[in-house]
Amino acid sequence: MKKTLISMTAVMALGSAAVAEEVHVYNWSDYIDEELLAKFEEETGIDLIYDVFDSNELLETKMLAGGSGYDVVVPTGTFLQRQIIAGSFQKLDMSKLPNAGNLWDVIQKRTDVYDPAGEYSINYMWGTTGIGANVGKVKEILGEDAELNSLSLIFDPEKAQKLSACGIHLLDAPTEVIPAALTYAGWEGGPDDHSDAALAKAEEVIMAIRPYIQKFHSSELINALANGDICLALGWSGDILQARDRAAEAANGVEVTYEVPKEGALMWFDQMAIPVDAPNPDAAHKFLNFIMDPENMAAASNYVYYANGNKASQEFLNEDVIGDTAIYPDEATLENLYTVTPFEGGEQRSLTRLWTKIKSGT
Amino acid sequence: MRRAILIAIPYVWLLVLFLIPFVIVIKISLSDTALARPPYFPQWDWSLGWQGIKDFFRELDFENFVFLTTDSLYWKAYLSSVKIAVISTLLTLLVGFPIAYGMARAPEEWRPTLMMLVILPFWTSFLIRVYSWMGILSQGGLLNSLLLSLGIISEPLIILNTDIAVYIGITYTYLPFMILPVYAALEKLDGSLLEAAEDLGCSRTSAFWLVTLPLSKQGVIAGCFLVFIPAMGEFVIPSLLGGSQTLMIGKVLYEEFFSNRDWPVASAVAVVLLLILVIPIVLFQRNEQKQREAEG
After folding, report:
1. In terms of CA atoms, which chain A residue is nearest residue B245?
2. Core-most of A43, A227, A274, B53, by most CB within 10 Å?
3. Where are the transmembrane segments (chain B) (predicted)?
4. Neighbours of A277 (CB within 10 A)
5. B156 with B9, same domain?
6. Predicted TM-score of the model (pTM)
7. Are residues B207 and B264 in the same domain?
8. CB contact under 8 A, B38 and A65
9. Domain that holds residue B172
10. Half-sphere exposure of B282 (CA within 13 A, CB side)
C-alpha cells in the first residue's frame, strides 16, 4: 500500500513536471459511457477534462460570448446552424479525421440542413421526440384499444382531460412542443412553420389542453414516468427509454413505453464541433476521431440508448439497441420523421413570448 | 495626501466593481441584437479611429427601453417581483426580529454560540439548501407526511411550485441578513435606558415600543434593504421552488438572455431593475440626512 502511494506521488510529480496536453470536452449530461473517457486518455496520453451541460441555451450563450475554453462541444443541429453563422466554430481538418468514413450517409443527408457537407461538425447521437406512456394506467382510463402511438393522447382535450388526474408532463422546450402541436392539428404549413398564423394555431391547440398539463419540464419526466407518478409525457426517446428501464429494474408494476407518433415526429441531431477559439484544436480532432471509431461509438450508444450517426458502429451495437425500432426506426417510420430549422431573431422572440404565455398565463 | 489616498480607495472600488460594469451594461442595452460573437451590434472598432467612435455612438439608441413598455410582461414581472420581495422582507422581519431580540437578551457567554448557529447554514451550498426545501415541501415530502400522520390534514397540501414556496425559500435563505444587523443594533442598546423608562412608569411592552424599537430602527432598515434588494432580482429560488405561473423579473431576464439571445433587451431589463432599486435607496439616504441635520 505504502509502495503504491509512493509511486503514485512520483507519477503525479512527473505529470506536473512535464506540461501535460489537455483537451476540454463539453457534452450533455448522462450522454456517454465514462469508460470511454479513460480509454481515450490511455490511448492518446492526453488529459481529458469532461464537463456537462443540460440545455442548448446555456451552451449557446458560452459559444456567443466566446472564450469558453472548450475544445469540443455538442450543440443540437438547429443551434449549431445559428452558431456557425455567428462564427463560433472552426472548419474541421478532414486529414486528421480518418474515421470520418464511418459516418452514416442517411443521417449526414439530414444534418446537411444545419451544416452543409459536414464542414464544421460530425453527428454524435440523434433521436426523436415522442410519447412516453404508462401502459397500464392509460389503458385503464381510455380502454384497451387506446392508441399509444397517437398525438391525440396528449393534444385531444377530451382524452387529455381523462388522463389529467393521472398526470401529463410536456417538455419545457417550445421548439419541440410547438411542432408536435402543429403536426397534430395537421397544419398546412407543416410542423416547421414559424409564421404568426402557425404560432397562433399552436397556441390554440396547446391552450385547449393547458388545464390538464401538470408540468412543463425537460428532465423530471424520467423519474415521474418510472415511478408511476404520471401517465403520459411528450419527451426525448432516450429519456423515456431510460424511464422504461428504471421501472423494469424497480419491478414496481409500472410498464413504460416509448412510441414514435404515427402523425409524424421530430428528429433531432446532436453534433460535435470545435469552437473557433479552442485552446487545443489538435487534441479536439483526436477526440472526434476517437469517437468515430466504430467500437467506441457503439459502446456509447449501448450505454445511453440513443442512435448514432456512425454506420460502421452498427455491427457492434447490442440487439436491444439496434433491434429496437424506438431507437433505430424502420424505413416506414423514418419516412414519417421531420426535421426543423432554427427560429430567427424576431421569430424567436415571438416563440419565447408565446411559451411564457402558455406556461404562466401572462 | 494620506487623506486623499484613503478617500480614493473606496472610489476606485466603486469605479471598478460598480460603475465600469454598469456602463458596459448600459452600452449593450443601447445596442441592437445581431447574430455574431458577441451577439450585439455595434462593437468598438479601434482601427477606424475617431470616425469609428463617432459611428459607434450613432448606432446607439433607446429602442430596447421603448420595447419594454410595449409588452405588459415586463411591468407585470417588475410589479410581481416588488410584491414578492416586499412580502418576503416583512416575513423575514417577523421571524428575524424575535430571534435577534432573543440573542441580544441571552446571557453574554451564549451569544457567540448563537451567532455561530445563525451563520452555520452558510457552510452548506445555497443551492443544496434550496434543493432540500424541494424535498420538504413536495407532495410526498417531509412536511406533508408529518401533517398527514398527525391527522392535521387529510389531503397533501400543494406548496411546492407555488408562490408560497417562494416566500418560504426567500425568507429562509435571507434570514441571517436580517438577524445580524438587527442583533448588532439591539446588542448596542444601553440597558439603563430601559430601566429609566420603567422607573418613569413605562410597562415592559410600552418600553419596548418606545425605547427598544426606535433604537433598533437603523438595524431593521439595514436588514430590510439587505433582504429586499437581492430578493427583488432573485432567480434561483423562484425557478426551483416556484411554479410556471410565478412571474419574477429575474426569470424574465434569464429568458431574454438565454432563450431569446437578446443581450440588448436583457441589459435594458437589468438597467431598469437597477433604477427601480436605486430610487428607494436614494430616497432613504436623503431622509436619513435630513433627520441628522434636524437633530444636529
Report:
1. A360
2. A274
3. 12-30, 77-101, 113-130, 136-153, 165-186, 266-284
4. 17
5. no
6. 0.81
7. yes
8. yes
9. 71-295
10. 6
Residues making up chain B, counted from first to last: 296
State yes or no: ipTM above 0.90: no
Domain count, chain B: 2
Handedness of CA A182, A185, A189, A190 (dihedral sign): positive
Whether B61 is in a domain gets the answer no
Whole-angstrom distance, CA of residue B172 vs CA of residue A255: 40
Q: Is residue B217 part of a domain?
A: yes
Position B182 in a domain? yes
Asked whether residue B110 falls in the same domain as residue B159, the answer is yes
Least CB–CB distance from A349: residue in B244, B247, B260: B260
pLDDT tens for the 296 residues of chain B, in order? 788 888 899 899 989 998 999 999 999 999 988 888 888 888 877 777 787 788 788 888 898 999 999 989 999 999 999 999 999 999 999 999 999 999 999 999 999 999 999 999 989 999 999 999 998 998 778 999 999 999 998 888 888 888 999 999 999 999 999 999 999 999 988 888 988 998 998 888 898 899 999 989 889 988 998 999 899 999 999 988 987 778 899 999 998 898 888 899 999 999 999 988 888 788 777 877 877 787 66
Cell numbers standing for residue B126 = 445555497
CA–CA gap between residue A74 and residue A274 (Å, rounded): 9
* Same-domain pairing of B89 and B148: yes
Looking at the domain assignment, is residue B133 inside a domain? yes
Q: Say yes or no: B246 contacts chain A, CB-CB below 8 A.
A: yes
Distance (Å, whole) CA A332 – CA A264: 11
Asked if B5 is an interface residue toward chain A (Cβ–Cβ < 8 A), one would say no
- Which residues lie closer than 8 Å to A5 by C-beta, 6 or more apart? none
Q: How far is CA B248 from the centre of its chain?
A: 13
